Amino acid sequence: MQRPRPITIAGHQVGPGHRPFVIGEVSGNHNGSLDRALQLIDAIADSGAQAVKFQTYTADTLTIRSDEPPFRVDAEHGLWGGRQLYDLYEEAHTPWEWHEPMFARARERGLVPFSSPFDPTAIELLESLDTPCYKIASAELVDLPLIRSVAATGKPMIISSGMATLGEIDAALTAAREGGCEEIVLLACTAAYPASPDDARLLSVPTLEQAFGIPIGLSDHTPGIGVSVAAVALGACVLEKHVTVRRADGGVDSDFSLEPEELAALVRETDAAQRAVMPPRFGPTDAEKAVLALRRSLYVVADVAEGDPVTSANVRSIRPSGGLAPDMMSTVSGLRFVRAVKRGTALSWDHLSARA
């Protein structure tokens, strides 16, 4: 089956056949400090990732302050259990006045800066900063009016599909296209924080590609980089991971975030995975040809005179190649040499009589 055509994001080709597009997600890992946010941007740039992503909302644009049970995180949640939604979003949000210096720093460092908007006022802010693309968060995949508003900007969209059914994904993609967007990447995602590798279900990557015919990536909330590397081997073209300066510093997202050196390893190893997944080929590659000479073959291992018989004492299967195949030893054993042959000579039929 033909792979989807790549899309272009700020000059980067994103899709099959191209280097994985790695996004470092800042989210709430700024821990309330613009200086830390800028430090994170520098670390993401140093890692070799191509993009940095923010989240553009306020507590008031996401929810209301209420202590009623629906406005609290489930008490069993490992990170945020029992917290009031408003307080959590107030702590994690990125102040809007930070966006301009963060976008500027990212561009200075060669990164593609963009964000997830959560309401029309966020889109307005991001448009004022000339964001090159948009991300739709998993929970917003069902907010079709928001998707249509983003699509109307004409910018590429990266849509995360955590929790979504195939029908909901199809509705979101239809809304994006109806709104005017044709440059779309869909991210497989397990919307758990952190997520277990047991729940990653990475075969959704080729399944989604086959179902929707667009580039597929992964929004990965599992610990470490193994799941992301495996996703690239299965065809993921985009990877998004939360990044922090140090997990030990704490913060709302720190437990499932990569530290800078881990992000650098992710960039390195997913690039290797993408280059390694090539169509099958059998027989020696160009790189293997030098080692091909090290295959075993039959060699004369002791000086012989004319008329001497072939024995295990004067002919053996050794490295390198060049002589008769090792399996021919039973055939040539007992045949006689037609001339003297020096030790270290590759055995050929020209050295032997037709019979013992």
Task: Note down, in words, how this protein is organized.
By secondary structure, the protein is α/β, with parallel strands linked by helices. It folds into two domains: 10-57 and 93-276, Aldolase class I (TIM Barrel, Alpha-Beta Barrel); 283-356, Alpha-Beta Complex (Type Iii Antifreeze Protein Isoform Hplc 12). Helix content is 31%, strand content 15%. It has an eight-stranded parallel beta sheet. A two-stranded antiparallel sheet has the order 1-2. Helix 1 packs parallel to helix 4 and helix 6 packs parallel to helix 7. The model has no long low-confidence stretch (mean pLDDT 95).
Record keyword descriptors for this entry.
TIM Barrel; elongated; 356 residues; alpha/beta; eight-stranded parallel beta sheet; 2 domains; Type Iii Antifreeze Protein Isoform Hplc 12; 12 helices
Arithmetic mean pLDDT: 95
Secondary structure tally: strands: 12
Number of separate helices: 12
Question: How does CATH name the architecture of the largest domain?
Answer: Alpha-Beta Barrel
Total domain modules: 2
Q: What is the CATH C level class of the largest domain, in words?
A: Alpha Beta
Shape: elongated
Radius of gyration: 30 Å
Distance between the termini: 59 Å
Strand order of the largest sheet: 5-4-3-10-9-8-7-6
Give a short overview:
This is Pseudaminic acid synthase. With 356 residues, this protein is of the alpha/beta class.
